[in-house]
Amino acid sequence: YGLYDYLRNSIQQLELPHRKAALIVPAFETLHYRLTFPKSKAELLSMLDMGSLYTFRYHVWPKGHAPTDYAKWRTATVPYRVAWQPDFEPYVVVRRDCPKYDQRFVGFGWNKVSHIMELDAQEYELLVLPNAFMIHMPHAPSFDISKFRLSAGYRGCLQTLREEFHQDLSRRYGAAALKYLTAERSL
């Protein structure tokens, strides 16, 4: 509740129209199909402590949102900066003129990861908003995630696309983009 107004105010206060920044909206999830949506951060924290909410994908893909630093978010009162880490895929609010999602990554796999990587390569600040949150509701698996899980060919194609993306980043951003390739190889 009130997220739209909070985002609009944050955009103005942080002078987002005049700086390269991605505002991160921390993501949570529930395993229940029915949920009384929390009206405040305090209510969300209470639900988190009671176990009716969880940090997003903590049990299946913690790397995707761990850099958000949920422990810090719990007590944060002002936006804070986080650093890019491999496989980071937060939900963000950015200016319209930011890099577009890479069209190679349709379906399941690497769309948000590659986008955040490109933002980082362009030196966008990654700022976590202290009073914003979203809740992912359970739903049936997508057709594309099923293909990813069941098809070695799909996973192989995705790996090839990832390698091409890394090469493109290296060509566009030079030595600064090597950290992405190094991070990928160390996984």
From TrEMBL:
GO MF terms, alphabetically ordered: glucuronosyltransferase activity; metal ion binding; xylosyltransferase activity
Gene Ontology CC: Golgi apparatus; membrane
Any Pfam family the entry gives: Glyco_transf_49
Compartments it resides in: Membrane
Keyword terms: Glycoprotein, Glycosyltransferase, Membrane, Metal-binding, Signal-anchor, Transferase, Transmembrane, Transmembrane helix
Gene Ontology biological process terms from the UniProt entry: protein O-linked glycosylation via mannose
Membrane topology listed for this record: Single-pass type II membrane protein
Record-linked PANTHER family: GLYCOSYLTRANSFERASE-RELATED, XYLOSYL- AND GLUCURONYLTRANSFERASE LARGE2
The protein's name: LARG2 glucuronyltransferase
Organism of derivation: Anseranas semipalmata
Classification of source organism: Eukaryota, Metazoa, Chordata, Craniata, Vertebrata
